[in-house]
Amino acid sequence: MTDNGRVTVDIQDGIATVTFFHPKKNSLPGVLLKEIAESIDAVGKNDDARVVILKSEGDGPFCAGASFDELLAIDSFERGKEFFMGFARLILAMRRCPKFIVGRIQGKAVGGGVGVASAMDYALATERSAIKLSELALGIGPFVVGPAVERKIGNGPFTAMSIDADWRDAAWAKNHGLYVDTYASIETLDAAVETTAIRLAGFSPEAMQRLKTACWTGTDHWETLLEERAEMSGKLVLSDFTANAIAAFKKK
After folding, report:
1. Which among 114, 24, 21 is positioned nearest to 67, based on CA atoms?
2. Which of 13, 77, 92, 148 is the most buried (most CB within 10 A)?
3. Looking at the domain assignment, is residue 192 inside a domain?
4. How many domains does the chain divide into?
């Protein structure tokens, strides 16, 4: 393991499990974003895998979103755009993966973590898996992850989340379609994820691929859209407001 975290891939009985970890609340620096996207692409092309589980390690937060250290180090538009393209490339990899991605959300998800959860095809969570789009409070906005979140929960709830940048509990996330179901403990969550993956691994790969394509109808323009959104974020992250806001968040 390095300070950048790690990604592991395990394939057994038709189920590919992609697991990521970062010591800072499973946050996502650029290196980790790239590794997760590449892993999703690889298992998507592997005939030994018929379904994918995407999860993070531990019993704490599912994902704290963008790495604050990396955000503070951005000193040019080019570096800013490239960082946010990491989230764009991961969402696009999840979109184009021809296999259903089952998500295991064991804890809180913030910012980019909400985007990752939204790009899953079937997300299951614990009852403590609250969500928050905190980007506006940092002087940016949930531009890159926005299309994935809005697609999953609808424009009205997405707009409200984006504007108030406040927490929604897991029950809210379930009621608005982000989570399929929630569970009282990680143990029951893991059992449900396993049961779901085993069931899907027994279905027709061709039928699942066609159904996934149908479920993502209307997203063919996302490669262009998410790049445009990364450019927006890449400019805003250079502001003094954002630098000061991130520094204040790090002190909490």
Report:
1. 24
2. 148
3. yes
4. 1
Provide the residue type at 70 as one letter. E
**For residue 45, what are the domain limits?**
6-201
Contacts of 10 (CB under 8 A, 6+ apart): 16, 17, 19
CATH of the domain at 137: 3.90.226.10
Per mean pLDDT, which range of 12-16, 20-24, 52-56, 68-72 is the poorest?
68-72
Instruction: Specify the pairing of strand 101-105 against strand 122-126.
Output: parallel
Note whether residue 93 is domain-resident. Answer: yes
The pTM (predicted TM-score) of the whole model is: 0.96
pLDDT attached to residue 202: 98
The pLDDT tens digits of the residues spanning 62-71 come to: 999 998 889 9
DSSP class per residue in 154-211: -HHHHHHHHHH---B-HHHHHHTTS-SEEESSHHHHHHHHHHHHHHHHTS-HHHHHHH
CA 66/CA 238 separation, integer angstroms: 15
- Closest by CA to 178, choosing from 121, 219, 95, 93, is 121
List, as one string, the DSSP characters of 73-117.
H--SHHHHHHHHHHHHHHHHHHHH-SS-EEEEE-S-EETHHHHHH
Mean pLDDT of the chain: 96
pLDDT confidence of residue 223: 98
- pLDDT of 176 > 70? The answer is yes
39 assigned to some structural domain: yes
In whole angstroms, give the CA distance from residue 142 to residue 176: 18
